[in-house]
Amino acid sequence: MTVRKHLHRMAQSFKFVLVRGKIIWVRRLIAIGLGVLMIPLLIVTLLSLRVNDTFLEEQFFKDQLVEADIYNFLYTDALTVAIDQQIEEAGGLPLDINLTTEEIVEAIQATLPPDWIQTEVELAIDDAVPYLTGETDDLSLTVSLAERADVALVVIQELLNSIDLHAALFDETIPQAVEDRLGTEIDLALGISLTANQAVESLERVITPELLQSLQTQAANDVGPYFIGKSDTFTFTIPLEDKVVAVQQEFNRILENVDLQPYILDEVIDPALDEYLVDGVELPLGVVITRPEIRQAVEAALTPTWVAQQTDNLVNGIIPYLTGTSEGFIVTVPVQDRIGAAVDILTGTVTQKYTALLESLPACTSAQIIQIALGVADPTSLLCTIHGLTVEALQDGLGIDPLDFLGQSITDQLPSSVTFTKEDLLATISGTESAKTLDDVRMAVKNGWSFNETDLPKVMDQSSLDDLDYIRETIRDGWNWTKDDLLELVYDVDDLSYSEDIEDFNDTRGYIDRARSWSLGLPLLSLVMLGMTGFIGGRKWITKLGWAAGSLFVSALLVFVASGPLYDSIAKDELEKEKIERVADAEDQLEAIVLEKAYDTGLQVGDAFFDGVKSRAMILLLVGGVVMGGSVVFSIIGGGGSHIRTPGKENMLPPEPESVADMLREAEDNLGEKEDSLFPTQPTDEGEDESSADSSEGNATSDDAESSEDEGKDKEKN
């Protein structure tokens, strides 16, 4: 009877085990499903936490810029290449300034040192990141350059002191300005012709390198405030009052080519001849001294020696006016003696003409001779000649003194002197560029040679002028950048969808702000997911920990692999290949080095980001592995002893339970021990009992005692 009850009890227990076994496998399948869901949840959680720690934190960007050495890169690489390219495209520096790229970079670096740029950039980051992440709605980046203006002024002074200003002006700037202003050849007064090169050479002998060297500091003081935006005008003046002697020497050099003869003939003699002697001078017997002959005689009388002497007098009289030491001049050139010399020349012409006349007349007839002898012949109508009649006899007979006759006819009609004044000089060049040049020269000598902001377009192209204006404005007012500037940079203002783009941009900022807040709940959700996995997958606390730790271990392992080896072997390699291709396709060297630096910095940021993800995944991996391993070990060696029966026992069957509740409890305990154990214990010997059911407290001794008690009761009943 006892054996039958025991068999019945075993059958009921087996049935219960089968039912509970199905339930535990369902629970385990659910736990596995939760573990699978834990993988993307953990990925999202770690990525979200890392984004919060990096891209949503100002300090991350600051640290990455420092680590990438961006601030030194701006000077050592980018700015150097940019200046080289700009100089090459412009064909040299403005004003032909002989500065090297290294000197320019050093000057800019002294004005805007890297540590100052870093400070301003970090302040900008502190303002920009909260706006981009939706924490604030205003963006206003301001960089004040006023404090650097004085430093810039000192740097400009040092630059100007280090350059050869004379060479900068005279190598190309001044020659080009002179040629643009006056052309290749300059026609001055009194028939003076001066080439542009001769004019530049004269200026260069007056404005010496020593003079400009002494004015370097003054040039910096005059020009510097304009370049840093403190002044809208500037005037750099080279004083020439101490260079009057040199200027006079140059005028002498120029005026030594003056030829007064054409001026006297054209401006004095010709007008008088046209007025008084246009038909010449008529002598008896039809002899005429023509106007051209009179002019030719006067021209011959103006000998080179006489002209040179009068030219010297003229130059000495004009130079005080040209150098600005006087406001006018009067130079008198006596020509009366030259008119007398011309009359002397004309007497020879009269003799020649009467000689030719006598030679052309026929011999007188007897009647004509008798009339001549009787003194009744009219000499003026005598159209014959007597053998042996000379010109002198003819002139005496006619009562002609050529010298007196011409003197009265010519000398009295022509001026005895020529007066040359400022008005005469200006009249000869009135309405020409030479008049303006003459006035500029006089003012330059008197007040100094000046160069101001209105002269900049003559030596700089429009692009350089625009850049200069932008620099001046930026230094004066500071650099301001608002959210409107950002939106104009990102989107096309002229696009019809511009307002929609702005709305989408602001919506994105709002999403980032909300996501940042919600992301704080992801770690809690992950913990809940791990707790559910452990609660459903295990029955005892140690196995529950094991299931939760196992899920964490697997998820962290996948994240670690993705953020470590996979990122290094796939993503980084692809970025490196793309960098090489983009750099090779760059249009110029500046674009190439900027692209290379951008990719290197991007890879650095990626490394920093995924290194953080990998580090956290490693920590979770270790925690999950340690807890899971501890659970397994504890289940093996610390979960309770086995109830082992030996063949020597009198009764090999388990004791009969007192009630069905005891039977179910024992079955549940046996089932729970087996299902909770990740590695169930196996019998170590063929003779050992394979049913290692423990009591709820895991005490084998109490089970033996209970079995012995049950056996005694059965014997009494029998």
Task: Describe, in plain words, how this protein is organized in 3D.
A hairpin with a 3-residue loop joins strand 5 and strand 6. Helix 3 runs antiparallel to helix 27. The strands form 5 sheets. Strands 1-10 form a two-stranded antiparallel sheet. A two-stranded antiparallel sheet has the order 2-3. Strands 4-9 form a two-stranded antiparallel sheet. It is rod-shaped. The termini are close together. With 718 residues, the chain is mainly alpha-helical. The relative contact order is 0.11.
**How many separate helices?**
29
Fraction of residues in helices?
over 70%
Task: Note the main sheet.
Answer: 2 strands, antiparallel
Secondary structure category: mainly alpha
Average pLDDT taken over every residue: 75
**Strand ordering within the main sheet:** 1-10
Relative strand content: 5-15%
Shape: rod-shaped
Which secondary structure elements does this structure contain, and how are they paired or packed?
Elements: H1 2-53, H2 58-67, H3 70-90, H4 101-111, H5 114-132, E1 140-143, H6 146-162, H7 165-182, E2 185-187, E3 193-195, H8 196-206, H9 209-214, H10 216-227, E4 235-238, H11 244-255, H12 260-276, E5 281-283, E6 287-289, H13 291-301, H14 304-322, E7 330-334, H15 336-360, H16 366-374, H17 391-398, H18 402-411, E8 417-421, H19 422-429, H20 433-447, E9 449-452, H21 456-459, H22 462-477, E10 479-482, H23 483-490, H24 498-518, H25 522-537, H26 541-584, H27 589-637, H28 660-676, H29 700-717
Antiparallel strand pairs: 1-10, 2-3, 4-9, 5-6, 7-8
